[in-house]
């Protein structure tokens, strides 16, 4: 087992890629904290992992709120005693709205979940990892964090920022035994959807690029990449942005 004796906290673990990560990490020996904003999803995932005989706890939390991040991390570390792995996976889309259509409400929501949440969680967890002698962070970014036309403005900016956060953490904390990498998925079969009130104009532009996309990958494809990045198999990989898109960005 690649993660025997390790503890992991995974946000957005109620469905899709986060759920697949939680199941796979648990199967590889990790004790897992399953975090999602939807309580029923948390309960379902926890029950599924418990049926495998793995150690797991469920936490319902909104990662756009500092007080809920504090409670999330406190609950996980209180139960497990330490935190070896953090996967910032929770995310939302933005309806493909270009900058001229972005409301303050949409901007705040997307940035709060996709960027500020991971930033605040890392700000809390990194000093703990330093104190315990190391740890691994994986941030779920997107090919939208590498290019300009995969989503709307808010999502694009949030994922570019998340990649910047990843590289900054990797550089400043590598001497303290912390690795931080970003996954950049392309089209994956998840329930993230387009986001609220999709923009007709924005989506029409995004569709030009979608025509070049290969068939979507599965959440399990991403989970196996995440397992590689949090395990010792990737011990010399730090500050990387790893694209998993079936070759979409080769076009």
Number of domains: 1
Q: Based on helices, strands and strand pairing, what is the structural class?
A: alpha/beta
Low-confidence stretches: none
Give the N-terminus to C-terminus distance in angstroms: 37 Å
Compact overview of the structure:
With 251 residues, the protein is α/β, with parallel strands linked by helices. The chain has seven helices and seven strands, in the order E-H-E-H-E-H-E-H-E-H-E-H-H-E.
Walkthrough of the structure:
The chain is of the alpha/beta class. The protein has one domain: 3-Layer(aba) Sandwich (Rossmann fold), CATH 3.40.50.720. The chain contains seven helices and seven strands. Strands 3-2-1-4-5-6-7 form a seven-stranded parallel beta sheet, sandwiched between helices. α3 packs parallel to α4. The protein starts with 6 loop residues before the first strand and ends in a 7-residue tail after the last strand. This is 3-ketoacyl-ACP reductase. One of its GO terms (biological process) is bile acid metabolic process. GO terms for molecular function: oxidoreductase activity.
Give descriptors for this structure:
oxidoreductase activity; SDR_DHRS6-like; oxidoreductase; single chain; 7-stranded parallel sheet; 45% helix; 251 residues; alpha/beta; Rossmann fold
List the helices and strands and how they pair.
Elements: E1 7-10, H1 16-27, E2 31-36, H2 39-50, E3 56-60, H3 66-80, E4 85-88, H4 104-132, E5 135-140, H5 153-173, E6 178-185, H6 200-210, H7 219-230, E7 241-244
Parallel strand pairs: 1-2, 1-4, 2-3, 4-5, 5-6, 6-7
């Amino acid at each position: 087992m690649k993660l025997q004796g390790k503890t992991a906290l995974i946000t957005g673990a109620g469905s899709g890629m986060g759920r697949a990560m939680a199941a796979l990490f648990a199967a590889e020996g990790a004790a897992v904290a399953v975090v999602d904003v939807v309580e029923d999803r948390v309960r379902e995932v926890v029950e599924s992992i418990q049926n495998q005989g793995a150690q797991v706890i469920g936490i319902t939390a909104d990662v756009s709120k500092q007080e809920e991040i504090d409670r999330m991390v406190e609950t996980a570390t209180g139960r497990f005693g330490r935190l070896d792995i953090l996967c910032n996976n929770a995310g939302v889309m933005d309806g493909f709205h270009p900058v001229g259509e972005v409301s303050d409400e949409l901007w705040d929501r997307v940035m709060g979940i996709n960027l500020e949440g991971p930033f605040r969680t890392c700000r809390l967890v990194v000093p703990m990892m330093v104190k315990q002698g190391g740890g691994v962070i994986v941030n779920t970014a997107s090919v939208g964090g590498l290019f300009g036309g995969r989503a709307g403005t808010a999502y694009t900016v949030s994922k570019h920022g998340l990649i910047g956060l990843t590289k900054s953490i990797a550089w400043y904390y590598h001497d303290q035994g912390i690795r931080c990498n970003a996954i950049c998925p392309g089209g994956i079969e998840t329930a993230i959807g387009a986001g609220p009130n999709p923009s007709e104009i924005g989506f029409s532009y995004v569709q030009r690029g979608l025509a070049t996309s290969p068939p979507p990958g599965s959440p399990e494809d991403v989970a196996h990449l995440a397992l590689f990045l949090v395990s010792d198999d990737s011990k010399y990989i730090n500050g990387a942005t790893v694209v998993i898109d079936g070759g979409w960005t080769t076009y």
